[in-house]
Structure formats: structure tokens, C-alpha cells
């Protein structure tokens, strides 16, 4: 019985170490193919526009994810974040630069984040 309790405790601590996977099935490619929707997401993150439920959910963990190199991100979240940055840089570089300036004003976190997202 004690072994079972220890296993549940370990499982619980493992689950608590990642962000909720609620939006892990988010279609990032659809977002990147719609410039207006992409602008809307970024404007949400920059506090310049309204946030829909999904953007607001991502925004809740955004600062922590950037600061800690996405260490609590699920593999799907890492992929979404990587594609968001890549696609955003390609399509809206000034928006992504403003995003980086807001969430990493001294430039100390994005290199760690990008390294963590390399293989996502």
C-alpha cells in the first residue's frame, strides 16, 4: 500500500511540473497562415488588443516560460512556441521584436528559450 501511495505522489509531482496541456492541440500553422489572427495573438500578448480564450491561456504562462526556458512546457507547447517565434519573425518581425522587448527587456532569457526550443 505504501508503494502505491509513493507512486501516486511521484506521478502527481511529475504532472505538476508541466503547464496544463489544454491547448496542446492548437493549430499553430493555421494561426501563422492568417496574418490578422497572428497580429491579434501578438497584440494580446503585448496588452494592445483583446485576448481570446486560447491566447489568454498561453499568455498566463508566457513570462514564466520565457524566463525558465520553457522548462514546464509540454513537447507540444514547445513546438507551438517555436513555430510562433519562427513564423512571427518571418511574417511580422517588428511585432516579434516588440514581444521580445516586453518579455525580455534586458535580453537575458531568449537565447536560453531558443536553445530549449531547438529540437521541438
UniProtKB/TrEMBL annotation:
<dbReference type="Pfam" id="PF03392">
    <property type="entry name" value="OS-D"/>
</dbReference>
<dbReference type="InterPro" id="IPR005055">
    <property type="entry name" value="A10/PebIII"/>
</dbReference>
<keyword id="KW-0732">Signal</keyword>
<protein>
    <submittedName>
        <fullName>Chemosensory protein</fullName>
    </submittedName>
</protein>
<feature type="signal peptide">
    <location>
        <begin position="1"/>
        <end position="16"/>
    </location>
</feature>
<dbReference type="InterPro" id="IPR036682">
    <property type="entry name" value="OS_D_A10/PebIII_sf"/>
</dbReference>
Amino acid at each position: 500500500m505504501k508503494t502505491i501511495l509513493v507512486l501516486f505522489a511521484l506521478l502527481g509531482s511529475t504532472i505538476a511540473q508541466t503547464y496544463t496541456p489544454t491547448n496542446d492541440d492548437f493549430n499553430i500553422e493555421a494561426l501563422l497562415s492568417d496574418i490578422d489572427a497572428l497580429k491579434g495573438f501578438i497584440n494580446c500578448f503585448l496588452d494592445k488588443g483583446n485576448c481570446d480564450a486560447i491566447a489568454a491561456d498561453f499568455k498566463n504562462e508566457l513570462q514564466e516560460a520565457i524566463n525558465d526556458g520553457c522548462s514546464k512546457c509540454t513537447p507540444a507547447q514547445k513546438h507551438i512556441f517555436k513555430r510562433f517565434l519562427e513564423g512571427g519573425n518571418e511574417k511580422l518581425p517588428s511585432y516579434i521584436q516588440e514581444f521580445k522587448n516586453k518579455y525580455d527587456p534586458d535580453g537575458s532569457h531568449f537565447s536560453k528559450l531558443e536553445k530549449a526550443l531547438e529540437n521541438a
